[in-house]
Design a protein that fits this description.
The protein is of the alpha+beta class. The protein has a domain of 52 residues. The protein is 33% helix and 10% strand. The protein is built from three helices and three strands, in the order βααββα. α1 crosses α2.
C-alpha cells in the first residue's frame, strides 16, 4: 500500500549537480523545512526565479552557493594559552 507524501516534505534531488532545484529539493539541500525556504525567499535571503508568473519557483545552484557564502560563520580564533586552573 503506497503512502501519499505531503507536497511540503523535503525530497532529495535526483541530480545534485542540476542547475535548478524546486523548493522541496532546496529544503532538503539546506536541511530545513519547505516553509523555511519560503521565508528565506520572502525575506530576500535566498534569491529565486520563476519561468512564468505564477509558475514553479526554482532556485539556481549559484543562488545556493551565494547563500552559503553569505551565511557561513567565521571560525573562532583560539589562543595558544592554556586555560587557567580552577581554584582548589
Amino acid at each position: 500500500m503506497a503512502t501519499k507524501q505531503s507536497p511540503r516534505t523535503p525530497t532529495k534531488p535526483r541530480d545534485l549537480n542540476a542547475p535548478f532545484f524546486n523548493l522541496r529539493e532546496t529544503a532538503w539541500l539546506l536541511h530545513c523545512s519547505y516553509d523555511t525556504v519560503r521565508r528565506y525567499i520572502k525575506a530576500g535571503l535566498l534569491p529565486c526565479s520563476q519561468r512564468v508568473p505564477g509558475g514553479v519557483i526554482v532556485v539556481t545552484q549559484e543562488d545556493l552557493d551565494a547563500y552559503h557564502r553569505a551565511t557561513r560563520t567565521v571560525p573562532i580564533r583560539r589562543s595558544s594559552r592554556k586555560p587557567a586552573r580552577a581554584a582548589a
